[in-house]
Amino acid sequence: MLVRLAGLLAIVAALLPLGLATRLLAALGASGTSARTGVRVQAWWARASLRVAGVRVKADGLERLPAGGFLVCSNHRGYLDVLVLASRIPGRFVAMHEIRGWPLLGAMARCSGTLFLRREHARDLPGANAAVEATLAAGVPVLLFPEGRAGAGDRLLPLRSPLFEAAARNATPCAAVALSYETPGVPWSTAWTVSWWGGMDLARHATRLLALPRIHARLRLAGVPVVGGERKSLASAMAARIEAALPPLALEPEPPDNPWRGWSPPG
Question: Considering the entire predicted model, what is its pTM?
């Protein structure tokens, strides 16, 4: 586990200057170039980090994604989702504001141009939607976890529709992606070993996750991208596609040393 952590630190140290350079481009007014370069750096970081962490990614159907700027909507199981999505779909994330201060992930998120949103502040939405619209216009995909928070993975939480506004207004293609995990050789449900939800301590969870021998992540493009419609209908269409493509997941068996025993997933 310590070897993996050292490797992750080394990757961030190596790529952070490139990420900072993309922020300098944005400060100089080259926002489109900054966004396109930032997501490439983010993809390099994600692929290298997953290799070090023992995570193998299998992607199904992503070759059918449209070119240029489009919206990608995925179910949300925790922080590992960011690396998995970024490794296969170079795009700009919309993420909760708290991630800015996280170690490793927060630093790279800031440098890759992640759009941070305080969900409890409705006044942040117009600015976030304007940034999403500008990113899509620059030909860069935008990656969303529209559930708004991570879940155990046993069900899809309701999707929030406000961030679909830019796609609805501009008839931008919206693609649904279903994300799931397996841990070969580990008998416990990934709801406890991989998913990060419900107030789990981040450092403790990450330590346990890095101790897993292997993690297999799978991305499935769920149906054809949807173009047109108002934001609530887009959110409903994405939810239906993701739910249909997700494999069933039980909360059992639970690890015998589970520090979060007795918790119930958010409903």
Answer: 0.93
- Token couple for 159: 């999707």
- What is the model's pLDDT at position 260? 93
- CA gap 118, 116 in Å, rounded: 7
**What are the beta bridge partners of residue 143?**
72, 93
Q: Exposed e or buried b for every residue in 158-192, given b needs 16+ CB within 10 A?
A: ebbbbbbbbbbeeebbbbbbbbbbebeebebbbbb
CATH topology of domain 2-245: Glycerol-3-phosphate (1)-acyltransferase (3.40.1130)
Domain locations along the chain: 2-245
Q: And the tokens for 134?
A: 């500008």
What pLDDT, on a 0 to 100 scale, did the predictor assign at position 120? 64
Q: Residue 266: what pLDDT?
A: 76
Residue 2 CA to residue 7 CA, distance in Å, equals 9
